[in-house]
Amino acid sequence: MSPSRVAAIALRIVRQIARDRRTLALIFVVPAVVMALVGASFPESAGSGVLSYLAPALLAAMALFFAFILTGVSFLRERTQGTLERLMASPVRQEEVVLGYLFGFSLFALVQSFVVLLFTIYVLDINYSGALWQIIVFQVIVTLGSVNLGIFVSTYARNEFQVTQFIPLVIMPQLFLSGVLWPVAQMPRYLQWASDFLPLTYAVRGLREVMLEGRGLKDVPLELGVLLAFAVSMSALGAATLRRG
Questions:
Q1: What are 99-146's pLDDT values in tens digits?
Q2: Domain encompassing residue 70
Q3: In sequence order, which residues have a C-beta less than 8 Å from that of residue 146 and are 6 or more positions away?
Q4: In angstroms, rounded to a whole number, what is the distance separating the alpha carbons of residues 171 and 188?
Q5: Cα-Cα-Cα-Cα dihedral of 75, 58, 200, 11, to 10°?
Q6: What is the domain count for the chain?
Q7: What is the pTM of this model?
Q8: How far apart are CA 127 and CA 52, in angstroms?
Q9: Cβ atoms within 10 A of the Cβ of 5, count?
Q10: CA distances from 191 to 160, 198, 209 (A)
């Protein structure tokens, strides 16, 4: 594997998105607007106990949602414009392509995740117990896994309509079954079993333990391990499903 090839692909992605000023503005503005609406929906106060309890789940869910949309649509555009096909026809290896796209897209996905996180903490003024840097590390891991998921899923889409149809298929079940809306323990047994296979379940659980219970990253090894394994496996599957020519 050539680090220079990976860096070249990532740099091209960064330059391409950075040149699109409207897209760049939306990357910053949309997450803040969404979280502002979330805060406004709690009339008692932004830093209320309810919102503080929901904040970890919202951070994980927003990281998954924004990263998946950004990556899925952008990666599909690479295919429809023929850029990906030209790369795959070159001596560049499949894993180099996936890693290049991962690093390129992750920069902007992380920007959106950080906007959500910082807006939630400093503007909505939620109460949390864990160290901020540990929350950031956890959020980074969730975002990287979501970017890899977006790359993998978009390899099966041929147009933007198909990408958007993956949202209810991939994102919505996780929102309903991972504890974002209601506790997993109150769900039927078969849904609890299904939630054990969803990465967002571990993201929500881990962030709640860090933010609400004041635990450190060393106290959530299962959640971190599952999320890291998910990110690696999605990257490997994305490389395996790319077709040359």
A1: 898 999 999 999 999 999 999 999 988 888 888 999 999 999 999 999
A2: 3-241
A3: 63, 64, 67, 68, 71, 109
A4: 20
A5: 30
A6: 1
A7: 0.89
A8: 6
A9: 18
A10: 30, 11, 22
